[in-house]
Design a protein that fits this description.
The complex is a heterodimer of chains A (972) and B (94).
Chain A: E1 13-22, E2 25-31, H1 35-41, E3 48-49, E4 56-57, E5 70-73, E6 80-84, E7 94-98, H2 112-115, H3 124-128, H4 133-147, E8 162-174, H5 178-189, E9 194-197, E10 213-214, E11 217-218, H6 219-232, E12 236-239, E13 242-248, E14 252-257, E15 273-285, E16 289-291, E17 304-306, H7 307-315, E18 324-329, H8 333-343, E19 347-353, E20 367-369, E21 373-377, E22 384-387, E23 392-394, E24 397-401, E25 404-406, E26 419-421, E27 426-428, E28 436-438, H9 448-460, E29 492-494, E30 499-500, H10 503-509, H11 515-522, H12 535-546, H13 550-553, H14 567-571, E31 583-584, H15 588-593, E32 597-601, E33 604-609, H16 617-630, E34 633-636, E35 641-646, H17 650-657, E36 669-676, E37 682-692, E38 695-700, H18 705-719, E39 726-729, E40 734-740, H19 744-749, E41 767-772, E42 776-781, E43 790-796, H20 800-811, E44 817-818, H21 821-830, H22 869-872, E45 877-884, E46 896-899, E47 911-919, E48 924-932, E49 941-946, E50 951-958
Parallel strand pairs in A: 1-7, 8-9, 8-15, 9-12, 15-28, 17-24, 18-19, 18-24, 19-20, 31-33, 34-44
Antiparallel strand pairs in A: 1-2, 3-4, 5-6, 5-7, 10-11, 13-14, 14-15, 16-25, 21-22, 22-23, 26-27, 29-30, 32-33, 34-40, 35-38, 35-39, 36-37, 37-38, 40-43, 41-42, 42-43, 45-48, 45-50, 46-47, 46-49, 47-48, 49-50
Chain B: E1 2-5, E2 9-12, E3 17-21, H1 35-43, E4 51-57, E5 65-71, E6 77-82, H2 83-93
Antiparallel strand pairs in B: 1-2, 3-4, 4-5, 5-6
Classes of the chains: A alpha+beta (972), B alpha+beta (94).
């Protein structure tokens, strides 16, 4: 054991020595230690470097608010940056490294920033690196980022598991100190389902850290008996190592349980962390109070810490922060600090009480009243303090207490602001009603007896009360103590961000006196501790600088999360392949057998092309087109949205949805439909077939399937509730394949039962219910997206792959080929069919050349707004065909169209190319474009200017139908 | 936030898709003189602080469109009815 580990006491197990390394140096600690306490026990007080000035820093707290002792924990794939040494439970084999220093923690070149610190005041970066503008992104920012860094994340995938879970309870108690334990007990004895959550590794809260006396025993022993009783009750769930990070609508709480962070490697089948959503009937916040620092010079030198943290280190971890200590503050807790330290044999040099008239019992320690610590002196460790009265005190550590701030964060996360109490010198939680109450020190109850009574009352919430045990109270009296202006050295407000007390009056002078602006200008409160320690000092300094009260300045907004949360906890198990579901079509197996290359479209895996040996995507797609147009091809179109519409008013309902008419469609026929949004813009398209008088099957585009379904449900339920109709998505229930090409009929004929396929029995746009392959129910549509004589065949999903194989077998004699979405896209551009590039949320039916479809004789969604002047302007961009003037040139999608000789500019922009394909039929690149007044400009030569790829080609505007304008092949 | 679905009982908000203010009523006429009413229906929305009736689709549940009454300031949910009942009640009033 080292000289800083006390010979006895503490909640550490002296029989186990845990080995760990910090920056490669080996150390040992004890079971029950945190990394911070173990390092302090080993005499290591220097644990990190600050953000801007690279100042040497040690822990200033013993808990969650720690801004200084941030370390990189573990190695390799498990490395985690910016973990708080004060929260890390020590385990055997722990590896930690300091961060934000180069070349080493002890000798950090960046500390030179401190010498230039008169330049590096608040707003320095904003002011200095404004000019020249182009330098910011490439030069200034990367250098500043490198110099002012936190830890580095591992670039390897996280090997550990994370879980998400739900919990429900009648009463959630947050914090397991005296108030929290009483609240949990009172609620539990009423039979309520209680969850007691605490961020610490052990329950007990402040009772683990302090020397208290409750019910005639030590506070610690009392807490053990209460925890034992709670643990024995079946209606109580105890959740240590669980931080409640947010309070959300409906009294739902977010919580992170650190299941395995205290282990080197999680146990098998255990997650590292578990994210909880807790639905609570009501909640009691008993999070205690955070001690705030005093802004004096050198209040960041390793060895200066919260008085309460120093008590925690001696009482709980049996670790002395220094062999001799000066205690400084403006409230009575400094006397208990001196007493606790003395009881552990630590020499207290002096108590420095800012108040003249205080009456605390120093217990034999010299007291200097009415003086202030102006500066702590020392580089990497405290050597002495200088007082405002000229006294010098040599010491190794300084315990400071500026007062106590109730931890109201959760209580303020849903919009309410905390309320200033001038007597307690603290912001108290707002009234949030009965579903969320605050108890104990978090509610400004600064005496132990008040905490116990308040906890009992808030836990019982008007129900059966429980007995409140008697206890010994410590004195509480407080005077304001925010900033020692006599200081020479830097007095830090936000430690991690190196924001100093002087930055705040500067911000006010420069016009940033609003607390939210001052925060952003000085970066006070923007570090990972989110201002838990020093924000209140900042408010007080701003108040004084601007002649306002604390209320008038107010606090910045409290937002989730209470402490930093790892991405892993939010991601849970939804990573890699589990990030989103994969949708495979019923023909997926068949496509795989055929060697398909798949492309993700939304969640779907669609077969994109079917390469043969030596073929790239373009060669494969071109061959698929030539074979389909020359003989036959089969394509999986199962991803199209399929919606079954039935009912007496089905036709009338479809008339409302589509701009064209479906109530007049003959049974056994299909029709192309165009759907508008209510604002008159085209929404979706697809074919709809009438299978019976009261039965339609409609199709949507793949991309809009879910949205159109929701829109139909809205139209039916909210807009036209009197129509007798039902619609159901049947996308998953049917496999659908396009069979196209001059030999498509001959191919399908082999499979169809009892039907001789002719132009009379299966005319163009026929939609028939048939059976195939001796009884498999099927739907046969004579539809064509390719422009060929073509069919779509739909069968129940489970038959999909089998039927597709049968089609391939039937077409084998004709040389049938499977084709993918690449070939499909080539053929649709050859034929000038519009798709996603043109149905882009800005085009009207008229823009697409489909204006004639719009009915003037009925009401439908979008009818009125489509008539607006701006949507009928002849100069709107309209769909046209486009092809390069020189057939050896390539045009590209996205290229903008300019009149010949015009310079590229927004004013000269005439439109752009929406889709391009290599046409194997025409042996050139052809495309579709949106061009101002395009239909009147067929034949015109324009520049296709591609600024992104840096080239420009001459192209000719033409009819969108590039191939087989007369549609001879369709009817062949 | 919890939504009391008339079909499914109280369900978490994640199961719902919100569309917005349910106050505007789709005009029943296509007369050119009604253009102003159509414009208001399509584009104009109040943004009240306090109670609002909002369309919500139980897209991860029974797929009913609901009208949820919610306080925009506190996110308190007062209740929910089906959009069908809401529309019919509105028609009856008109």
């Amino acid at each position: 054991m080292t000289s800083y580990r006390l010979g006895k006491g503490g909640l550490v197990d002296r029989s186990t020595a845990l080995r760990f390394t910090f920056d490669g140096a080996p150390h040992t600690g004890l079971e029950g230690d945190t990394l911070a306490s173990a390092l302090l026990a080993n005499g290591v007080t220097l644990m990190g470097r600050s953000f801007k000035y690279h100042r040497p820093r040690g822990p200033i707290t013993a808990g969650a608010a720690e801004p200084n002792a941030l370390v990189e924990l573990r190695e390799g794939a498990r490395k985690e940056a910016n973990t708080r040494a004060t929260m890390i439970e020590l385990h055997d084999g722990l590896v930690a490294r300091s961060q934000n220093n180069w070349p080493s923690l002890n000798f950090d070149i960046g500390a030179i920033n401190s010498l230039a610190s008169s330049m590096l005041v608040a707003g320095f970066y904003y002011k200095t690196f404004m000019w020249p503008k182009s330098f910011w992104e490439k030069i200034y920012e990367p250098i500043i980022r490198r110099a002012a860094g936190l830890g580095a994340a591992s670039k390897l995938p996280d090997p550990d598991k994370y879980e998400k879970s739900y919990a429900h309870c009648g009463v959630l108690v947050i914090g397991s100190g005296p108030a929290g334990l009483m609240a949990a007990l009172a609620a539990a004895r009423q039979g309520k389902r209680v969850i007691l959550a605490d961020e610490g590794s052990r329950l007990g809260g402040s009772l683990l850290n302090e020397q208290e006396e409750i019910a005639g025993q030590s506070g610690l022993d009392w807490s053990r008996s209460i925890i034992a009783e709670l643990a024995s009750m079946p209606n109580v769930t105890l959740m240590p190592r669980t931080t409640i990070i947010g309070w959300f609508d409906g009294n739902i709480f977010g919580a992170v349980e650190r299941v395995s962070d205290h282990l080197r490697v999680p146990d098998p089948y255990e997650p590292r962390q578990r994210y909880w959503k807790i639905h609570a009937g009501r909640a009691v916040l008993a999070a205690g109070a955070e001690e705030r620092p005093v802004a004096f010079g050198g209040n960041d030198v390793p060895g200066v810490m919260q008085a309460s943290a120093m008590r925690c280190y001696v009482n709980r971890y049996a670790v002395a922060a220094g062999r001799s200590v000066a205690v400084f503050g403006g409230n009575d807790s400094i006397y208990r600090t001196a007493r606790d330290l003395k009881s552990h044999g630590i020499h207290v040099e002096a108590i420095v009480d800012s108040r003249e008239d205080s009456r605390g019992d120093p217990g034999g320690v010299p007291v200097i009243r009415g003086a202030l610590v102006a500066d702590a002196v020392g580089g990497k460790a405290v050597k002495s303090v200088h007082l405002t009265d000229g006294t010098h005190i040599n010491c190794e550590a300084v315990a400071m207490s500026g007062g106590f701030s109730p931890i109201v964060n959760l209580a303020c996360q849903r919009g309410k602001k905390p309320v200033w109490d001038a007597k307690l010198l603290a912001f108290l939680p707002p009234d949030n009603g009965e579903a969320f109450t605050t108890a104990g020190a978090a509610a400004g109850r600064m005496l132990l007896s008040e905490c116990l009574a308040d906890g009992a009352a808030k836990g019982a919430a008007g129900g059966k009360p429980i007995d409140v045990p008697k206890c010994r109270d410590e004195a509480f009296a407080i005077a304001p103590l925010w900033w020692v202006k006599e200081s020479h050295g830097k007095a830090f407000i936000d430690y991690q961000n190196d924001a100093t007390a002087r930055d705040l009056p500067l911000a006010a002078r420069e016009g940033y006196s609003d607390v939210e602006l001052a925060k952003r200008y000085t970066t006070t409160g923007m570090a990972t501790d989110q201002g838990k320690l020093g924000n209140i000092n900042a408010i007080a300094i701003l108040a004084e600088a601007t002649g306002r009260t604390m209320d008038e300045v107010g606090t910045t907004t409290f937002r989730p999360f209470y402490t930093p949360v790892s991405f892993g906890a939010f991601a849970g198990p939804f990573t890699g392949h589990h990030f989103q579901p994969v949708r495979k079509t019923p023909l997926h197996d068949w496509a795989e057998e055929q060697g398909a290359v798949f492309v993700e479209t939304g969640l779907w895996m669609r077969s994109s092309w079917f390469p043969r040996e030596g073929e790239d995507w373009l060669a494969a797609a071109a061959r698929e087109v030539l074979t389909t147009r020359g003989a036959a091809g089969i394509c999986d179109v199962s991803t199209l949205g399929k919606i079954d519409v039935q009912g007496k008013d089905a036709g009338q309902f479809l008339d409302k949805l589509y701009c064209n008419t479906f109530s007049t469609l003959a049974v056994g026929k299909a029709r192309y439909g165009l759907m508008l949004r209510e604002d008159g813009i085209v929404y979706d398209d697809g074919t709809t077939s009438r299978l019976a008088e009261d039965h339609y099957v409609m199709t949507t585009t793949t991309a809009n399937a879910a949205k159109v379904m929701a829109q139909m449900e809205f139209a039916h339920q909210a807009l036209f509730p009197d129509l007798d109709v039902t619609c159901v998505s049947v996308t998953e229930q049917w496999a659908q394949m396009a069979v196209a090409g001059p030999k498509s009929r001959a191919t399908l004929q082999k499979l169809i039962d009892d039907l001789v396929m002719t132009d009379e029995t299966v005319p163009y746009m026929a939609a028939l219910e048939v059976t195939i392959m001796h009884g498999i129910p099927a739907r046969l549509f004579r539809l064509s997206f390719s422009g060929e004589h073509a069919y779509e065949l739909a069968v129940p999903a489970d038959y999909g792959s089998m039927v597709a194989r049968a089609v391939c077998q039937a077409g084998e004699e004709f040389g049938i080929t499977p084709y993918g979405v690449e070939a499909l896209s080539i053929m649709r551009i050859e034929k000038g069919h519009v798709a996603g590039g043109e149905l882009n949320g800005t085009t009207t039916a008229g823009d697409l050349g489909l204006g004639k479809m719009v009915s003037a004789r009925k009401d439908f969604i979008g009818r009125m707004m489509a008539q607006r002047e701006g949507l009928t302007d002849p100069n709107r961009q309209q769909v046209t065909g486009i092809r390069p003037v020189d057939p050896s040139h390539r045009i590209r999608a996205g290229a903008h169209l300019l009149k010949q000789g015009d310079k590229p500019s927004m004013a000269n922009d005439q439109g752009y190319i929406t889709g391009v394909a290599w046409s194997p039929m025409l042996n050139m690149w052809v495309g579709l474009a949106l061009l101002a007044n395009g239909r009147a400009r067929h034949g015109e030569i324009v520049q296709a200017w591609d600024g992104l790829r840096g080239h420009s080609v001459l192209a000719q505007i033409c009819d969108p139908v590039h191939f087989d304008k007369e549609n001879r092949r369709l009817h062949a | 936030m919890l939504i009391p679905c008339p079909h499914c009982g109280t369900r978490p908000v994640e199961e719902f898709t919100f569309l917005g203010d349910a106050a505007p009523t789709r005009p029943t006429t296509s007369d050119p003189s009604s253009m102003e009413a159509w414009y208001e229906y399509v584009y104009l929305r109040n943004n009240p602080r306090g109670p609002i009736d909002e369309y919500a689709h139980h897209s991860g549940g029974c797929r009913a469109w609901l009208v949820v009454q919610r306080n925009t300031e506190t996110h308190e949910v007062f209740g929910a009815v089906t959009a069908r009942d809401f529309s019919k009640a509105k028609d009856a009033k008109a």
